[in-house]
């Protein structure tokens, strides 16, 4: 057994457990659970020591889970890389997992994974009392009035970039779509959150950070799978360089950053035992959270719109109508301002965006059982869980359920509209669902940046369609790359060319 594997396994054992129990768990991790207990869900061990079903799960988690569901029903436990994960497949049971945040914990797991991936000391370390709670409190800056302020800044920064793009696109201009979304969203998000880099080559500095970010992000699924960073080529070096950009001496030079980042900085300063590098690593982690999913989600929203002319026409019509009715002119030199209500009322744009999120998101909502206990479920059902077991919801199954969404593989831009208004009632087997669209997670692990993310993507599409005629430049299908299944928004398996040209102001 490799050193890193044995260390990883030993981390799973909590203090105070008897030697006998430790031996039992050791056996469980390596060979698979030998004893099934009454009340526990059906167990799929797999025959490969330690890995269990990891390879099949990693190859295509969606298919694997559907196959197991057909065989074993809506609740089952799978042995995956030394862990026992109980999947709850029935969306009507989700609520029983989501609301039980006492016995089913999330933060400890997230802390372990994030601190390792982004190279900062765990928040739960006794050296940093209340750091986790303090950082969570700051998420208030991504809601309410502060959300409006940060959204306005994002709109302004997006417009600056689009204005620059406009000056280049008086005739048809061709670019790769993912690259385009990445460059626009990364720069606008960076400037909005962290501020403008004032040097003459400020834009270049941001694009250097972006290029390193793309390299790091390519290794993200491996890091999330607990593969040691030393085995991932230059990733460790790239991560270190990225983190160095966020050292205080660099960040203090950046102008006009956001309240949320400033507040995080103020909190870090209160912790003397948090080193300069550690603080910078936290800032880098926040950057990753803010663009890692938003960039691919923006790509899919744009790609599906361009693939479906009727969707593109309806959304553009809605945008033009809003501009007209509010007396705003489009064109590179005019500043467009959108209030929160106006953004909220773009029902076609929102529906199209939700539809692409339904199709491209694949996040697994994980909780960890804090004790041996019986989880009560709907209809007198119950399931016995052991301390340390993982419980997982896998909303991609819900998103692609033909009982909930007719023709789930088809993009229907107006799926989330009913009688001209937002549609929020979806049914399965004749029963209304509480949860029907979950790209941003659930309960205690719900994304704090979800409102900003939706605004950012709406604003990007708004400006793109207000300013440009846009069309696909290649006739090829782009598919989901499954290597991030369970980790958030899936990336496209290839990039695709598109063309854009400044729209005539007369139309
Ligand atoms: C389409 C865009 C986005 C998607 C799909 C998304 C999705 C998610 C999901 C599913 C989680 C929970 C992860 C888990 O369960 O382990 C999460 C966490 C998080 N997201 Fe987002 N996110 C998006 C954009 C953003 C943005 C724009 C920000 C900030 C500006 C942000 C900040 C965060 C943070 C800080 C966390 C960790 C929260 C914690 O400490 O528990 N996200 N996101």
UniProtKB/TrEMBL annotation:
Query: Is Transmembrane included in the keywords of this UniProt record?
Result: no
Q: GO molecular-function annotation terms?
A: heme binding; iron ion binding; oxysterol 7-alpha-hydroxylase activity
Q: Which GO terms describe its cellular component?
A: endoplasmic reticulum membrane
Query: Which amino acids does the record list as binding heme?
Result: 447
- Pathway, according to UniProt? Lipid metabolism; bile acid biosynthesis
> Keyword set for this entry?
Endoplasmic reticulum, Heme, Iron, Lipid metabolism, Membrane, Metal-binding, Oxidoreductase, Steroid metabolism
**Biological process, per Gene Ontology:** bile acid biosynthetic process; cholesterol homeostasis
Location within or outside the cell? Endoplasmic reticulum membrane
Mostly located where? endoplasmic reticulum
Q: Please, which domain of life does this record's source organism belong to?
A: Eukaryota
- Residues annotated to bind substrate: 116, 293
Q: Which cofactor does it need?
A: heme
Family membership: Belongs to the cytochrome P450 family.
Protein name, UniProt field: Cytochrome P450 family 7 subfamily B member 1
In its UniProt entry, the species of origin is given as Meleagris gallopavo (Wild turkey)
* Lineage per the UniProt record: Eukaryota, Metazoa, Chordata, Craniata, Vertebrata
UniProt lists the gene as LOC100541042
